[in-house]
């Protein structure tokens, strides 16, 4: 089939669905506040479920509130080819993060109906509970339970700041299903694709509409405390100081250098830093800060871990301070299934859409689902790389292009 | 006169006076809270004034509340040889900061009475209003008015957080005197000496009881704002970042390097630093911090100023951020009168007290008085270099040694 005769989704319909869903929890500055398992989330879920039923899909809800909507295939023994994302948002979230992946999946189903195409394998569009982790932790809860990262009972017992549990919140909004988490009618998915805004600046900087996501960076987060001694800035000569701020500053620079040594995928960030006593003429006696390391291989993360310990200890000795490093978060790197990555790349090529291979720097539901099924992701650019912000924005032509790639990739596995 | 026959102060009496004065405003942890122009300050002033009168001194109060207590000399035309310091404290202050200098001066008068010595020149012991600047700014207010740095009307109009003015607070505690500030009966002082704890670690580290203070470092303080762009720590590659934290960290290191380049007197400190938004997985878009530069010469401070601008601008360009530098404080360096510094050095030598030349890193009343009269200072060690803290401590033998040096230095100018 040549490029002109490939089936295409309806970009205007997809855009209108994105705008309609964004009206639920809309904020004055153009964003969306639809936090997981709130009344707004219920309204959003109800709307998407209604659309799925109107498209003739069979909707099921599992015990952690993940929703699966199935379009039957011609082969009763075939495993489903799936897609999905999430519809919960950050408190100051945008219209596209998560929502784009879910509604692109729905648009694929609607398009196949329009064209009268019946696939061999069934198709599923899922939305996963509490990806954002704003009200309840851990983040990516629904896909994490699906993947066996934690069990459903643990997840349902998690409580918000008011003591309300996930289980009770699911029941309150009518989304505590009976289906055991992780149980799909025909066994596990044959493949899973997730379309998502990039949430970063790479595609926009490259001027490309499609990112072929080869995997997701692993993450290791640390809390660091540097302890020196408070002293007067005036009467204390440099040689007699135990300056926690100076040592911490050199450590921040070392974090950046260690990340550069792991180019192109190494990333190192100090996002949080607190000085004590934080008075302009007192040499700081204590600095607490965070380190966020990311890399595409566990070997790379291990190298960064070792390099950080060596660098920080050397800096501390030279500055006459103590340093304490505690690891607080660990997500392993994820390499997506080559056949799914290839399907995304071939879909973009077949559609004549310029694209590049990229990695995801952030976590996504797809990273958990990848533990249970061959998985790929499709990125589209977002304006200025901004996400988790009411200013989050994307172009209609990029949204349409991403959904068309999703359609082709799913068809490649479901035909 | 050989060392054995030099007059000596009464160390036990001086120590007892220090402890008696420290009982007014005593804190549970062994410190003192006697903030300027409070009821506690009134009680402290009244006690010291009573002691002065009991020692036969003539007490006067000027229009900003500075107190002068005079012991007459034999030459009615001679200008006074003066000493002094302050008795107000920080909210969590210690027993020695300021108090030592005032009571060492009083002990000099008491000793001369004991020994029946009448000097040619009159002697004065002063305590200056509001050295600490805790309740009212500017700091070193009384000596600043005396020296003409600001006028008495300006100082009296300064208000605390409750809107109470210095003038009203002086009247309330009975220390708003009639004598114009800066007016001394016989004209200006012939010389002024101030004994003080070091408030730093140099003498303790050197194991010496006496510091001969040759001058005080000038100070230039700055507020700095680094502006980058907030972005997700995961999806944003290093090359596309505008990381305000990384740039600020390199600037902190540059402040230290610039100070090292001005050894031995250059000092550079970042005591305050605030990160925005200060979230562990967000690349910081803004960092605000302070810079405190000190040096013994204005040329040196000028070099530090220029080196900072060059360094910060280079770092900002390399990191893709903006930097804004505002100077907020300037105290000029002070070089004490060579004849007074020599008198202190000779006094220590004559007494057989090991000593070294030092500079003051902090401001003192003596720095202002030095604008009106030949001035010198005597430092004694304080435990661990700690001051402005309830843990502030000093050894009786060091306090006694410092007062003996003060006695000899004053006699050298007053005989």
Automatic annotation (TrEMBL), chains A, B:
Please list every transmembrane segment annotated in the UniProt record, as residue ranges: none
Co-factor binding comment: Binds 2 Zn(2+) ions per subunit.
Q: Which UniProt keywords apply?
A: Hydrolase, Metal-binding, Zinc
Record domain Peptidase M20 dimerisation: where: 218-313
SUPFAM superfamilies, sorted: Bacterial exopeptidase dimerisation domain (SSF55031), Zn-dependent exopeptidases (SSF53187)
Binding sites annotated in the UniProt record for Zn(2+) 1: 86, 97, 196
Q: Which is an annotated GO molecular function term of this record?
A: metal ion binding
* Residues bound to Zn(2+) 2: 97, 132, 388
Instruction: Quote the CDD domains the UniProt record gives.
Output: M20_bAS
InterPro entries recorded = Amidase_Cbmase (IPR010158), Bact_exopeptidase_dim_dom (IPR036264), Peptidase_M20 (IPR002933), Peptidase_M20_dimer (IPR011650)
Its cofactor is: Zn(2+)
Family from the record: Belongs to the peptidase M20 family.
Q: What is this protein called?
A: Zn-dependent hydrolase
Q: Which organism is it from?
A: Cupriavidus necator (Alcaligenes eutrophus)
């Amino acid at each position: 089939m040549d490029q002109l005769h490939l089936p295409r989704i309806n970009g205007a319909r997809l855009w209108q669905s994105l705008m309609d869903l964004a009206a639920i929890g809309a904020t004055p500055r153009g964003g969306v506040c639809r936090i997981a398992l709130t009344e707004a989330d219920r309204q959003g879920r109800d709307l998407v479920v209604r659309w799925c039923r109107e498209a003739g899909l069979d909707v099921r809800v599992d015990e952690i509130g993940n929703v699966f909507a199935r379009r039957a295939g011609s082969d009763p023994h075939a495993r489903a080819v799936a897609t999905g994302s999430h519809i919960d948002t950050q408190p100051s979230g945008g219209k596209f993060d998560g929502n784009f992946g879910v509604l692109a999946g729905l648009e694929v189903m609607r398009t196949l109906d329009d064209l009268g195409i019946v696939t061999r394998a069934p198709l599923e569009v899922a939305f996963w509970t509490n990806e954002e982790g704003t009200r309840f932790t851990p983040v990516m809860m629904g896909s994490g339970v699906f993947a066996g990262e934690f069990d459903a009972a643990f997840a349902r017992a998690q409580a918000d700041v008011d003591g309300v549990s996930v289980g009770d919140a699911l029941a309150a909004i009518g989304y505590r299903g009976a289906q055991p988490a992780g149980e799909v009618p025909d066994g596990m998915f044959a493949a899973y694709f997730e379309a998502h805004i990039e949430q970063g600046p790479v595609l926009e900087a490259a001027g490309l509409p499609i990112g072929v996501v080869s995997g997701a960076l692993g993450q290791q987060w640390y809390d660091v405390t540097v302890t020196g001694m408070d002293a007067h800035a005036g009467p204390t000569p440099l040689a007699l100081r135990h300056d926690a701020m100076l040592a911490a500053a050199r450590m921040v620079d070392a974090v950046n250098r260690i990340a550069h040594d792991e180019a192109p995928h190494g990333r190192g960030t100090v996002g949080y830093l607190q000085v004590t006593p934080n008075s302009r003429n007192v040499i700081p006696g204590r600095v607490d800060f965070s380190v966020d390391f990311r890399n595409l291989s566990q070997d790379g993360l291990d190298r960064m871990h070792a390099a950080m310990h060596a660098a920080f200890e050397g800096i501390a000795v030279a500055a006459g301070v103590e340093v304490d490093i505690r690891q607080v978060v660990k997500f392993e790197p994820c390499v997506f299934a080559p056949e799914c990555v290839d399907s995304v790349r071939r879909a973009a090529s077949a559609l004549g859409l310029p694209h590049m291979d990229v990695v995801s720097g952030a976590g996504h539901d797809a990273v958990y689902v990848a533990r249970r099924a061959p998985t790929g992701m499709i990125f589209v650019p977002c304006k200025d790389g901004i996400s988790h912000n009411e200013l989050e924005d994307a172009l209609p032509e990029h949204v349409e292009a991403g959904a068309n790639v999703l359609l082709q990739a799913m068809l490649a596995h479901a035909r």
